[in-house]
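Recall the central idea of this unit: under ordinary conditions, the amino acid sequence of a chain determines the structure it adopts. In this exercise we apply that idea directly, starting from the sequence alone.
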Amino acid sequence: MFGFDIELIRNLSSGEEKRLRKFLDDHGLRFEGKPDITVLVKDPAGRLIATGSLQGEVIRMVAVDPSWQEAGLSGIVISRLVEFARERGMTRLFVYTKPESADRFAALGFRELARVEGSVVLLEMGEPGVDAYRAYLEENRAVGGKNGAVVVNCNPFTLGHRFLIERAASSCDRLFIIVVEADLSLFPFKDRYALVREGTSDLANVTVLKSGAYAVSPATFPTYFLRDKGSEETAAIQAKLDVTLFANLFVPALDLRVRFVGTEPYCEVTGAYNEAMKSILPARGVELFEIPRYALDDGTIVSASTVRERIRCSDWAGVRRLVPDVTWNYLNSSGAAEIISRIQSSRTRH
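Accordingly, the structure predicted from this sequence is:
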């Protein structure tokens, strides 16, 4: 009827990526990440008129030429991406889009999770979705008292994390440690989660939880996991989105009154996240409690990135000074050998 061609491309050529980047830029979007599949829709003359990409569970970079808005191309793009995902056993998808496009996705069965006015909206479709995750949180809810939370990646668990958690636990009645579940860090989630649980097992008022896809995930805060962090503006918008979702979901489900965070003097992305919390959480009834970074007697700031750098340099005496016994024992186990080898043969990641 309209005479357009639809292409599904797994690996974009340099020419296709260049063309896509320009099309997205013309429509107020930015090319990010490394898509698993990209849909390109072209008119009879071969001009690009619509696109969308899927990376992991996240649909991104959906754009349609305004002159083709009545052709239903966004629905076609999304349908092709959903079909591709379902053929690979994926039952839940997220879409990261501009506010003016949110209604279009809602009509396709997506449900809004959070938005940053004028910038971005995050929506979800499929199962297990946010309702199942909310039920998981509510099962662990502590009734009454001052409930607090920290969100940590622990890549790996350090004395700095232990210091933050110990200080936070002493400042509230129940502390929820939410461990980032996205498996995009050098140390896998199952190991990071186990280290946090064992490393805090002596703290009676602490509960360790999995973040699901709802805190510092590729859906909510993709810049956190990218080597090329992108623009400061992008990081700030994504940080606001993630914090807004935290306020929408975690705060009521766990009856949170305070969120604890370590000060961030070095990482711009984490610094943007802290600023987002300062601007959003107090207005939602949540106190933000900043705890100074833990430092050794010689002034060395203890961080996971410093641990990884010292592993890379085989500075094991330096590593030992930065990690608790549980992490040291893990690093000396056969289970960590492959990870250590990978760190020592490549650049470190956040």
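The radius of gyration is 22 Å.
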